[in-house]
Amino acid sequence: MSNPWWKNAVVYEIYCKSFADSNGDGIGDLKGVMEKLPMLKELGVTCIWFTPIYTSPQVDNGYDVADYRNIDPAYGTLEDFQNLLQMAHSMDMKVIMDVVVNHSSDEHVWFQESRKSKDNPYRNYYIWKPAKDGKEPNNWGSYFREENGSAWKYDEATGEYYFHQYAIKMPDLNWDCKELREEIYDMLNWWIDLGVDGFRLDVFTRFQKTPGFPDTTKKAGPLDRNGFVVDHDMCTNVEGIHEIIHELNRNVFGKRGVMTVGEGSGVTYENALPYVHPDREELNMVYHFQLAARVRTSLSADQFRDIQSKWAQVIANGGWAVQYLSNHDSARQVSCYGDATNYREESAMLLATLMHTTPGTPFVYQGEEIGMTNVKFDSIEDYNCCYTKGDYYSMIQKGATPEEAISTLAPRSRDNARTPYQWNGSEHAGFTTGKPWLKVNPAYEEINLEKDLQSEKSIFRYYQKLIAMRKEHPAITEGDLKFYLCEDRDIVLYTRTCEKETLLVVANMSSKPATLTLPEELRGEKFKRILTNCAKNAPALDGRTQLQPWESEVYVKA
Ligand code: NOJ
Ligand code: CA
Predict the structure, then answer these.
(1) Is 0.85 surpassed by the pTM of this model?
(2) Fewer CB near the last or first residue (10 Å), C or N of the chain?
(3) Which CATH number does 5-100+263-375+419-453 carry?
(4) Whose CA is nearest to atom 10 of ligand 1?
(5) Percent of the chain with pLDDT over 90
């Protein structure tokens, strides 16, 4: 049987707000994306994932949805979206939508109704509880740590509290409510009728909460406030979650044959398979946070080998996964895991090599294909990310100075990923003719698409080659993964073997030159190089091979 399309896909994540602004209001939009589709096609992308572009008050940049069936006017209209969809399809690119149904905006009509009275037909769409001993129903903290830090907000109209894992303006939906579930199936089927090819499910492991909402006994962490404790376990992978996802599959995904990728908070190589094994009829794939995470700021070759070999088992056992190092919630991969100061291009290319040659579907986040880097703003006013702000005020409350707080939070702020795309060296990096909604990274004069394309070390061109390779070499999608340990632990060496071929990947994950001593097993084999990120020095692969800092190569067994 041939592979489903999503196993061969290369997905490109668009954070619309920061991608391309067509009308000078400082906010990226759908017409802007349309203008850039040829560039994505040139890159080789086969599928686009839109982070939420629905009508939203933008408390969390669209992850707070006020109308699931419309496009936010800042991005365009439903008609623009349909045109975009048609254009993408005519260019052989699929489009998947972000589905944010753990919570909605408090401006959604469901919540507006729900808060009105205890007997409103929509009351049960959300999670309401009376006070306990005159206080919040329990001691759970909200991730964005607004106000007193609690995950409960008192609502005067009915004198009860509603539950919100994220912002106060993002009340959690109640998945125990049958009518709510039916509304969601209808809404998703409506998008499929419109022509979308699949969905990315926002925080799907968090739909089911611990029954009874008991207090957590975990100790408060350094950023927790007023005794309200962030305890992810209370809402992650809770019993009952698999039934919810299976029902979604039965009523929507499987029934209509669309692609699904889940954002797997709390999904590990140990618990992933039930979510992604086809027999379970849940999701096609998940992305996890074991390799890349919002708070991870380094990645060693040892960690890479360890995590990849375990996730390869999930795939070998019939599941599937995403390969990625950055997205709109993380810092820039070349700043975290590469060497953005001395070997920006080389390390950006090396990291891409790893993502595009290990098992799973690679997801590219806008800007990584030109090696965009982290940014540091001087004032909290310049930041937009809800985590950065919440954590900042927690730190200030606990005695940190503004400088200390920003220095601690800047390297992991989600805004690192969200500064506008750097198209060229002109004002605002060519993103907008107006004032960008979030400041442009001052590095734009050096790092931008136009300049990259003229460079001998073009990262974009390297991505093109990597992506093209996927189409020619079945081992990239299908091959078994085998790691070899080298004397120099910074060298990552692995093969991908399928019936038709064996590929070999070698990468020096360090800013120092390294000597590769080829393992016994591989000596005597003939390998032909098909890709390198160090054109000038790249040697042939033999018993002892010198590798440049951040050098990466792909070979095929002759
Ligand atoms: C995960 C999304 O990727 C993130 O951006 C958002 O803040 C939370 N889910 C809440 O929707
Ligand atoms: Ca605009």
Answers:
(1) yes
(2) N
(3) 3.20.20.80
(4) 63
(5) 94
